[in-house]
Amino acid sequence: MSDQQGFSPRERRASFTLASIFGMRMLGLFMIMPVFALYGSGLEGYSPLWVGIAIGAYGLTQAVLQIPAGWLSDRIGRKPVIYAGLALFAAGSVVAALSDSVYGVVIGRVLQGSGAIAGAILALAADITREENRTKAMAIIGVCIGLSFAAAMVAGPLLASWFGLSGVFWSTALLALVGIVMVRLMLPDSVSKGQIRDVTAAPELFGRLLKDPQLLRLDFGIMLLHMTLTAVFVAFPLSLKDAGLVAEHHWWLYLPALGLSFVLIIPFLILGARRNMNKLLFQASILVMMMALVLMALGQGQLWLLALAMVLYFTAFNFMEASLPAFLSMLAPAGGKGTAMGIYSTSQFFGAFLGGVLGGLLFQQLGGPGVFLLVALTMVLWFWLSAGMANVSRVRSHILPIGGNIESESARSQLLQRLMALPGVHEALIIPDESAAYLKVDGNIFELDQAKRLINL
Fold first, then answer.
1. Closest Cα to residue 420, out of 435, 443, 438?
2. pTM for the full model?
3. Torsion angle of alpha carbons 285, 397, 217, 284, nearest 10°?
4. Please, are residues 339 and 197 in contact by the beta-carbon 8 Å criterion?
């Protein structure tokens, strides 16, 4: 396969290295979730509320710093921001590992979250890859994030049973150091291209996108999704323990439940794309998640029922986790994908923090069943809001370099008119500072080669 058709060796190495670094960092953030409620009981200040805060604390600093860190990488370069973020993540892991109180663990988690490198990693991937390969690079990173969550559900319980809670945090520190070495030795040097609107946020677009009801539904949805995740894992490990599954064997349930959920969502993802049923299947997933949460509440002391609930929960979670970014990509305006994704990611991490706090408060007052039932009620609100979702399908984004064809305002206006006249083009935007045209198109009709020929006239 030629470089024009697929990854060059440089692009391939960079994409898989960045995906690995991103995945290792997410693995480190997630590993505490299935174990802290069980293994943190010996820490000073332990309580359900502080369990929830410790699990979700990373989300607060991650939410606050996500977009600024991306902007900073535009100015000082991608690698310095990635180095600093991984160093902060390692420092937070060490603080948590050395702590004998839950408060120290919370401080460590806050530090871990402050290493917000997602924007810099995505921007570096965009710098290093050509536009025709950028989507594949982002997909590789996305797959690695999903795999890191699955690995965390297994690795967390195993490491905690072998080395204790501090061993989990020492492992995350080691992962961060490995990431720093990978950046140094395996990532090619690149000249930052500055702002690339498909991966970094543009301040002037915030007001517009925060008023878009379709994008706000997605932002609210990802916030709720990750709120349920952290809230569930405040209580669910204790439910498993009460049902007779010892802590070191919890991965026996998580691993097959996750594996089965990945198998179950594949036909539905394919069906949604081919039959234009994305909205219907998404709404069905909300109902499945609500059912899973109710089963968790009813299944106290019954391991088989808790196992069934977790299969349903992971199936719904993974389907929605895969679908929401795809919807956002299709709905974001031309040249606004990076900004939309920045708002979306901020909502996601804030949801993780909110879920930890609410889960801890609810568990303290109502116990595990109360957590599951009240979180299930939020699914009713989400289902109601999802009724207004657009049923989007086959909408694609493209960035095309346009070189010297935009030297004057009249030349830009004429080129924009010609691009908008192409079959399948919904939106077109020319950014002179980037020498690029951003297109939003119908993938069933639009012909990329035709647009390239027009631009090169």
1. 438
2. 0.89
3. -10
4. yes
* Structure confidence at residue 5 (pLDDT): 57
- Spatial neighbors of 269 by CB under 8 A, at least 6 apart, are 319, 322, 323
Of 413, 443, 417, 440, residue with least CA distance to 427: 440
Per-residue pLDDT of 94-133, as tens digits, reads: 999 999 999 999 999 999 999 889 888 888 888 888 766 7
Report the C-alpha gap between 152 and 35 in whole angstroms.
10
Instruction: Give the separation between CA 340 and CA 319, rounded to whole angstroms.
Output: 20
Q: Which residue, 179, 157, 214, is CA-closest to 93?
A: 179
pLDDT-derived band of residue 171, with 50, 70 and 90 as boundaries?
very high
User: Which residue matches tokens 């694609």?
Assistant: 396
Residue 188: count of CB within 10 angstroms of its CB: 12
SS3 (DSSP) at 120: helix
Report which residue type is found at 22.
F
Cα dihedral 35, 41, 44, 48 in deg (nearest 10): 80
SS (H, E, C) 2-18: CCCCCCCHHHHHHHHHH
Sign of CA dihedral 290, 291, 296, 298: positive
Using the structure block, give the residue that is written with the tokens 């008023």.
211
What is the rounded CA–CA span in Å between residue 170 and residue 285?
A: 36
User: How far is residue 19's CA from residue 138's CA, in Å, rounded to a whole number?
Assistant: 8
- Three-state SS for 214-255 is HHHHHHHHHHHHHHHHHHHHHHHHHHHHHCCCCHHHCHHHHH
In angstroms, the first-to-last Cα distance of the chain is 28
